[in-house]
Amino acid sequence: MLKINPLNMLKCSLPDGRCGRFFSPCQVLFFLMLLLFWLGGCDSPGDVGLTTIDDIASAPNRVEAGLQTTAEAHLYRDVTGAALPTLAGKVTEIGPLSGMQVEAYGYLDFLENTDRTTKFKEGTVSDVTIVLKNAYTYGEVGTPVRFTVNAMNAEWSPANAKYDSLLVAGAAVTTSGDLNASAKTWEIALPAAWRQTYDQLLRGAVSDNTFDKAFNGFQFKLASGNAIFGFTPADSYLRVVAGGDTLRFSSTSSKSHTFLKRTGKPIEVAGRNILQDNTGDAIKLSLDLTKFQKLPVNAALIRVPADTLSLYASGSFVRPIIRQLGIYRVSETETLAQLASAKFKDGYFSFSDPRLTNELQRMVIGKSTAKRLIVIPEVGASSINPVFWFTETQAALKPQLFVTYLPSNG
Amino acid sequence: MKNQMYKTLFVMGLFCIGPSLYAQVVSDGSIYSRYGLGERHHFNNSRSAAMGGAGTGYSDAIYVSATNPATLGYQVLTRFTGGYRYQANRFSDKAGNNSKLGVGGIDHFQFSFPLIDRKLGLGISFMPYSRTGYRVQSTGKLPKGDGYADSTLYVTSYEGRGNLQQFEVGLGGKLGKLISVGGGLRFYTGQIDHIQRTSFSDVENFTERLSTSNTRLYGVGGNMGIHVEKTKLGKKKNQEIGFGATVGLPATLNTRRTRILGENEIVDTLSVSQQFDTKLPLTTTVGLAYRPNENVLLVADFLSERWSKFSSGLSFGGYNPAMATDKQFQDRTRIGIGAEYIPAGRNFRDNYFMRAAYRLGFYTESGYFKPAANQNYFLRTNALTAGISLPTRKIGTTLDVNMEFGTRGTTDFGLVRDLYFKMGLYLNFGEKWFQRFKIQ
């Protein structure tokens, strides 16, 4: 009978009595270590065991939180006045905004061109024309417009100038002829008296005095018409002809300014407030977050219903509408920090951004430094575009705040 | 002398990096470690681990007990032991749902050396008293609407991580031929985090948030042990019998809990609790060992831990200080049995695998907490253990590979059953250090 002793399997089998192990202990150790580290990387966590966790919530919840909105008249945005394009004109509103008037004074300076030819230097200035590039139109474009060009008598700076900073101008230099309100380029010829005054300076004939020192730019005001236009300084210039040669004295965006003034109020449009760019309109947001105190906030969405339809103008009256708004945090020092921006879509401006969520999270844990949150237009360029938002009286259309949070964290 | 210095630095270095290695243990263990102070860690030495955790009754010059300081007096060699353990878990509920998680980490460090050969020894050990490590998650969908054009998937995960560490300095010595006694001073320190994290598939509109409950504990305790051993029994004088007992003294830990919301950009401490006392219970272990011949060792241990006397000013899973009069925790008991077989016995010239030690064991343990609040069910763990000890060229140094397969819990009462497989790799290094050379 054959007896098999399993222990014999462990004994050495080589004829000389030495062990013939396939792997050395070091190799075995190495492979075991590899196996353990490899196994350590496998997992597939699931919800098994979740039922044993009875003291904490398992699902984020989304609820509507208290949000109150109030119209504010405050020029929040830190605009230097050099915001482009430079606006000029005057518009008396029609339609739903009837009763309201907006006037803009545009300020442009032109810089000396030193690439003068000998002919130019030795000739006589025969023509100086202001060439303006129109980049923005708001108002009536069916009838011609005229502009008054006033001289700026003193040096001025657009630095720190907001839209309500009025720069005082001197006497009128000229008034343009009829300008086509729909045209993209306008030319306003300066009178002979002005040419004679600046003849030597324009030609660079006086070495110890320069055109830039003596000339301080123009203020543009609408003389007739019913529209506000926007000029891009980089494309606007003085065209100077002397001795048969022509030179451009370019304008510069660093020396331009817009003064805006809104008077009157639109006729009452039930349940609507106007939010107009650059005129000091803002929506102040008051949030009630008491029920989320000390809880994790995963998302915040603020939805502001807006009416753009009733603001669409017909005929030859052009009225661009605000298409984008921004939510900003206003600090104690009145500086702004953007939290979200939203484009108009399906009747709403819907703001949802991690920055907004984080700000609400800071609020619920008492770490926010925000003095208040506001909504202001965000058109990216200088404009007077309006939009209507609904007041609290329109319950179904009032702005809403939705907060996604974890109800309890145990 | 130079070599000895390097060795000492090596051991000191291991003790220094030990805590940071422990910190890397991730939250991928049993959901039941959410309860109490976590999953109690039972470890005597790698030999006992393969024999159902039993080993209080034997003494050995190669395997030093981490729990019975009385056996420190048997040492001849300076010894360092350390181990890496991997545990694969499979969790299932009554509905047949399963999930798998694996966790690996450094298991323990121990350093010991004889002050007087076979008479007096010192041991330093560093290991977890209890471990918290779990991760479960639920998924769901937030519907579209309320300004959101699309629905979004979310994952809410609950994670636990952390250890209560136990650092012990023990001294043990022989009183005559039969009896050894020892004592140890234990330092407890650790922190336990319970984390709740919610993340979303739509990361543009939703922000992941994290909230953490962090509990820090520290305190001092003690441990005492006795060991009685009778050798050279039987006709062939090759039988041995041993008895051991240890008492882990109750310890009061200073405990403080902090609730933290967020991470990275937004972090806020929501609340910091007062400092409370947490009282660790008395632990009593008795063990028997019998060696019928030089090939076989049989061991059995019984452990009792008086968690019914546990108290804390703070709540833990399954324990609410406001209900301190109720019996919220019960005494934890553990019975372990095991056997070791060395084919070669004491024949050091036999071939390699004959000189290896083969071990087998079993233990059953009743947990100290009730995972289902409304049911009088206390967690139970049953496990089979096995291991092989591979000798090395260096006398007194072994490489031990242990395995454990166990089951914990039940699928009744809305609970889950854990099936786990542990694999441990332990280096048990011994060398003669601090020798006094006689100058001739």
The poorly predicted ranges of chain A are 6-23
- CATH superfamily assignment of chain B? Outer membrane protein transport protein (OMPP1/FadL/TodX)
- Share in β-strands of chain B: over 45%
Q: Give the ordered list of helices and strands of chain A.
A: HEEEHEEEEHHEEEEEEEEEEEHEEE
The count of β-strands of chain A is 21
Indicate the structural class of chain B.
mainly beta
Biggest sheet of chain B: strands, sense, closure? 14 strands, antiparallel, barrel
Number of helices of chain A: 5
**How do the strands line up in the largest sheet of chain A?**
1-13-19-16-17-18-14-21
Helix percentage range of chain A: 10-25%
Q: Number of helical segments of chain B?
A: 3
- Alpha carbon gyration radius of chain B: 24 Å
What distance lies between the first and last C-alpha atoms of chain A, to the nearest angstrom?
A: 70 Å
CATH topology of chain B: Porin
| Estimated share of beta-strand residues of chain A | 35-45%
What layout of secondary structure does this protein have?
The complex is a heterodimer of chains A (410) and B (440).
Chain A: H1 25-39, E1 61-73, E2 86-92, E3 100-110, H2 118-122, E4 125-140, E5 146-151, E6 172-175, E7 185-189, H3 192-203, H4 211-214, E8 218-224, E9 227-231, E10 237-242, E11 245-264, E12 272-276, E13 281-288, E14 297-307, E15 317-318, E16 324-330, E17 336-345, E18 348-352, H5 354-364, E19 372-377, E20 386-390, E21 400-405
Chain B: H1 2-23, E1 39-40, H2 46-49, E2 78-92, E3 98-116, E4 120-142, E5 152-175, E6 179-200, E7 209-233, E8 239-248, E9 251-263, E10 266-272, E11 276-280, E12 283-293, E13 296-305, E14 311-312, E15 332-341, H3 352-355, E16 357-366, E17 380-391, E18 398-409, E19 417-431
Antiparallel strand pairs in B: 1-4, 2-3, 2-19, 3-4, 4-5, 5-6, 6-7, 7-8, 7-9, 8-12, 9-10, 9-11, 11-14, 12-13, 13-15, 15-16, 16-17, 17-18, 18-19
